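Category: protein sequence paired with discrete backbone structure
Discipline: computational structural biology
Format: plain text, a pair of labelled lines
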Amino acid sequence: MKHSDRNKVTFSNPKVQRVLAALEIGENRITRQELLSLSNKDILYQLKNSNYIRELQKDLFIGTTKLHKHVLKTDGKHFSSSCSEEHAHAVRNSLSLLPSSVLTRKAYETSYDIEKKTERRFKADPNCRARLEQLKQNQRMALDEVERKHRAFNSTSASGRYAENLRYQREREEHLSTLGYLNSDRPYLTPDYQVRLTDAERLEYIANLTEYKNSFAPHEKAYAVCVDAIEKLSALQGEVTLSVEVIRNTYGNRELIMHHHFETIFDVPQIMLM
């Protein structure tokens, strides 16, 4: 066998496809251990020797310009990007919960492609604007209700008035902040990736998430996040497009609220994972 043949990458190989999906969705990084868990040493060396991946640092690989061009030409997909290796690693780990068929049939969109598509849709689709206006109206109504309750509050107790003022200020600030996000030029945050699931894949995903949930203690935040994801998936039927956002403990209310805005404005069900 010629040296060039030995290093030829078979892109139709499901193992190669899973590696590429991890790189595309996982922000153009993959560790040696992750790559080997998805494929084998032969594929690692084929990708490396053909200059489709290179070692950025010990046991950490990135996709090269050559790979980016190949994927764009053959699949029309762009790679996600991020400055956080911790987040990129968490995103790649989340892919192990998906049915492998989702990746091998390339039924996914990266965060880069989602962002570009939704920017165009947000400007052009009147339904998106209508849903945004409804979100604003909901917040204005909630703010009016906070004001009404505060005006109606009556207590001779100093401690009661103090507690009421704290509640009033907190709830008022929450609604004003959310209105501020909704009135900004970019009232949403895009998810880490989207997948298109057949009904059988959706059921398999639920089973995988249930097993993953049970690896956490019931009091842990990751457990509760999984419960929410399973409930969301269980309420769906048939083939669905699903947004997935991998969150961290550092996420604040702003990030969570604006991810929920994306779900509502673009009318795509969304789950969160940790």
